């Protein structure tokens, strides 16, 4: 059959007989592909100009009979559905409606709705159809990029907005943000999320990398150099795509001494492609979203960058909300004057630290502190002087404590400290170190926290021990004055 566009189904359509009839009648040997046979209307032909237009369309075009069977298709359709037998088959065998509301005979309705072509990465089409020559002429307009973006935007917004109402630990919420990004951005197989803290980007979540990654930070300048598009694009939140081997070259050129851990924990040598998006809010970079692929340098289709950028914009708002909530929560657990934990923080930490002591089979000691003479300082020098004295005591408590110790101001001139792993008999040494750093007198009493002891009991016993110490100090002072 001359021409690539003269295609008809076999069997009941009697294609060969129709072809011979048309060849004789219309001299197809000279006109070639300028005609299309519509089998249920023998002898009906498509005008050469219309045929040429359909043949040249970049979109797939097919003609369907009333049962939805393919009777003709253009080269774009042949390319789209290559490797399958189209003639006489139903278009529904290859394309699936996105919505069940489109019905089994979607081609006889309006052009609303979408059709999906299954595959490793689905392709989506919006059909335009019209009745023609006893059947339906259908043109498929590809909208994969737009549809994928729309799905990603809706999905990410739903997930991210839901996080604002969750009461999970902040670290878990960071991980869920990253999981959502890897899920909605086409091509992403792994990733990491950083937050800017004290001039450096701290890794707060990772997928597909060494867990050690979340124990490290990278400086602002190193992260900006790794990004590589310049500070203007950085502040605008523009996504950057790097593929191997340029990816490895960039990493080698930007790595500074001490950053070898990122080469290993970040599996740089195994990456095929990576997308980095600055997470920007109100012109300030608050973190970076990194999405990675290990399988192909072409893992990220063109819509991935737009989706990643929009996700980062959504994530910026959510991260701001989460961090603001953490800040307010910290304020609620913090003594405004000294910056130590308050009584509410003590109530929360006591349960946690006591459970840790039991699990690790370590002693736990509570020390109850009281600043002697605070009222006298306030009366003689003013409340500002009294406040300064309390701040000094808080600073000294911090300075003598180990990493695992915690200190709290529970009201007025009273403080409490918890010491995990400190035996009761070693508490006097801690007390004396604190006194040695102060120019005011403090009374202190220590108690060993047992497994069955609650906070109220521990505070009561600590308070009693503190007053016993205060009485001893008073008797000692009176004895010295008597001499």
* Total domain units: 3
Q: Helicity level, as a percent range?
A: 40-55%
Q: What does the main sheet amount to?
A: 6 strands, antiparallel
> What gross morphology would you assign?
elongated
- Specify Rg, calculated over alpha carbons: 37 Å
Topology, number of strands:
16
Secondary-structure arrangement, i.e. CATH architecture of the largest domain:
2-Layer Sandwich
CATH topology category name of the largest domain? Beta-Lactamase
The order of strands across the largest sheet is 2-1-6-5-4-3
Percent strand equals 15-25%
Give the mean pLDDT: 79
Q: Write the CATH homologous superfamily of the largest domain.
A: GAF domain
Number of helices: 16
Uncertain segments of ≥5 residues (pLDDT<50)? 1-44
Briefly note the structural class of the backbone.
Answer: alpha+beta
CATH class of the largest domain: Alpha Beta
- What is the CA-CA span between the terminal residues? 128 Å
GO molecular function, one term: diguanylate cyclase activity
Keywords: Nucleotidyltransferase, Transferase
Protein name: Putative diguanylate cyclase YedQ
Domain GGDEF: 362-483
Main traits of this protein?
single chain, 483 residues, alpha+beta, Beta-Lactamase, Alpha-Beta Plaits, 6-stranded antiparallel β-sheet, diguanylate cyclase activity, PAS_4, Diguanylate_Cyclase
